[in-house]
Design a protein that fits this description.
The protein is built from two helices and nine strands, in the order H-E-E-E-E-E-E-E-E-H-E. It is elongated, with a radius of gyration of 30 Å. Residues 7-37 have low confidence and may be disordered. By secondary structure, the protein is of the alpha+beta class. The relative contact order is 0.18.
């Protein structure tokens, strides 16, 4: 009888300890194998638009204030600017990608012979960029990049660009820097306000280069956009 009671007591203790040990093991495996994903991960796409303030200067030309090499416009010209960027996330502190920026200014004018025309000025840059997030839990980031750019103007006969025209421009080196903030709107979507500065440098070569020198063009833009993480989850 005493042996039977001891066996029964041992069975009760085992029935309590074994499930408890299994539950603890499952929890430990869960903590190791199943970790929550961060807000920043995987592939991303960003689209933004806003005003951009453009100005330019040439090393060997007198600017608006009469000083050699100063800016041609006495105040920056504000016109629409756009940006699209795609890339991947290295870790919660770093996003890498490629970015295309464009600043556009279209206006009507009259030539010296009295004929009307429409001119479209553009500065377009394609760059490899990096977004660095100093604090993992915040959306604040600093941005930098470099690539190629083209500053150009298309002139068409008649107002509205109805017919004919000519195109001219210079291709050169571009670099960019700025800062922004990712504000999480949903599981895969961020609102992204950003301030950035894109700089263009080019030299046309030939006789004109000796007269005008290097062209420097700058666009300071403030954009508000959306950043998407396709297939991401929290």
């Amino acid at each position: 009888m005493r042996t039977t009671m001891r066996f029964f007591a041992a069975a009760v203790v085992l029935s309590i300890l074994v499930p408890t040990a299994q539950a603890v093991a499952q929890r430990r495996r869960g903590l190791i194998d199943i970790s929550p994903r961060g807000d920043r991960h995987g592939a991303w796409v960003s689209l933004s638009a806003g005003p951009g303030w453009d100005n330019w200067r040439e090393d060997n030309a007198v600017g608006c204030n009469g000083v050699m090499g100063s800016y041609n416009r006495c105040s920056d010209l504000a016109k629409p600017s756009f940006a699209i960027a795609v890339g991947g996330t290295v870790n919660p502190h770093l996003r890498l990608g490629g970015e295309l920026n464009a600043w556009v200014n279209q206006y009507n004018d009259v030539a010296t012979d009295g004929s009307p025309f429409t001119a479209t000025e553009t500065l377009i840059g394609g760059m490899l960029t990096a977004r660095v997030f100093p604090v993992r839990t915040l959306g604040l980031y600093a941005k930098g990049g470099a690539g190629i750019s083209r500053s150009g103007v298309y002139v068409s006969d008649g107002y509205g660009g109805g017919y004919g025209g000519s195109n001219s421009g210079e291709t050169g080196f571009a670099f960019q820097y700025g800062a922004g903030y990712e504000i999480k709107l949903g599981r895969n979507v961020f609102l992204t306000p950003e301030v950035s500065v894109m700089n263009h440098q080019s030299n046309p070569g030939g006789p004109s280069a000796g007269n005008l020198g290097t062209l420097h063009e700058r666009v300071i833009s403030f954009g508000v956009g959306l950043t998407f993480q396709p297939g991401g989850r929290r």
